[in-house]
Amino acid sequence: MARPQRLEFPGAIYHSTSRGNEQHDIFADGEDRAFFLDTLGRVARRFKWLVHAYCLMDNHYHLVIETLEGKLSIGMRQLNGIYTQHFNLRHELEGPVVHGRFKAVLLERDTFLLEMCRYVVLNPVRTRTVKVPEKYAWSSYRATAGLIVAPEFLDTEWVLRQFGKQKKTAERRYQEFILEGLGSASPWQHLRKQILLGSEEFVSAMAPLLGEAGRIREHQLRERRNKRPTLTQLFAKARDKMQRDDAIRLAHLTHLYSLNEIGQFVGLHFATVSKIANTVVEE
């Protein structure tokens, strides 16, 4: 089966997930999970994401994110890249930590955003990791329910607004809503075109864009590669390590030069180039 196209545009909402390579765990303990959430926060700030919900399981994670500037792939690339470097360095491993490219399903706000937020935080209960969602420390449930202070990157406003104007009332009703979902059917039965969850009108509107998105992206990639500056031009003003690192990120993330191409040009191992390219620089 051909892999599904990406639809990326400002204001798009996704359920996004990555799984461990060969089903291996990607989180060994709380320190790994805390690092991942810290990285998620930095990536969300840089690429203007609103994180509506999240859940970190042992061998995979779930995110429900709204991309204010349409920057899904580049953000996920950095999130997984930075975390892979951390995990391998801390546990003295090599190779991929997550399996292949991430998966993302485009959600319609009015029909499936709230349902997907519920689905995500109920993962630990469905897998019998815990009996009730408030017992699980590594999802957004407790913060949205008002049981702990929400991390800066988590946007609880939209979700709680669906349950009332008064925060305490909304938090209580949110908790009730989550528990009501324990016996409900999976939202995945409504998945269309491999990447769409929404009403028939939403699917009808988005489906024609899938083929168009692929054609447009292929054309854009060709154009960017044909018109991009040479590596010599990109590194011409790199007089120190900071400027060199900025040029590496520009070459890889913006102009699509491969890690090997950059590494051979600057005389660094591709793994070192990857580490530099995937470092989040706050803007």
Please describe the structure with a list of short key phrases separated by commas or semicolons.
globular, alpha+beta, Alpha-Beta Plaits, 283 residues, 12 helices, 2 domains, single chain, 5 strands
Describe this structure in words.
By secondary structure, the chain is an alpha+beta fold. It folds into 2 domains: 12-217, Transposase IS200-like (Alpha-Beta Plaits, 2-Layer Sandwich); 228-277. The chain is built from 12 helices and 5 strands. Strand 2 (49-56) and strand 3 (60-67) form a beta hairpin. Helix 1 runs antiparallel to helix 2 (73-91) and helix 11 packs across helix 12 (270-277). It is globular and about 60 Å long. The mean pLDDT is 88.
**Distance between the ends:** 39 Å
Give the class-level CATH name of the largest domain.
Answer: Alpha Beta
Care to count the β-strands?
5
Largest sheet: 5 strands, mixed
**What does the average pLDDT come to?**
88
Q: Tell me the strand percentage band.
A: 5-15%
Helix/strand order, N-terminal first: EHEEHEHHHHHEHHHHH
Arrangement of strands in the largest sheet: 2-3-1-4-5
**Helical fraction:** 40-55%
- Counting structural domains, the number is 2
CATH architecture of the largest domain: 2-Layer Sandwich
CATH fold-level topology of the largest domain: Alpha-Beta Plaits
Number of helices: 12
> Can you say what the CATH homologous superfamily of the largest domain is?
Transposase IS200-like
Unreliable segments (pLDDT under 50, ≥5 consecutive)? Answer: none
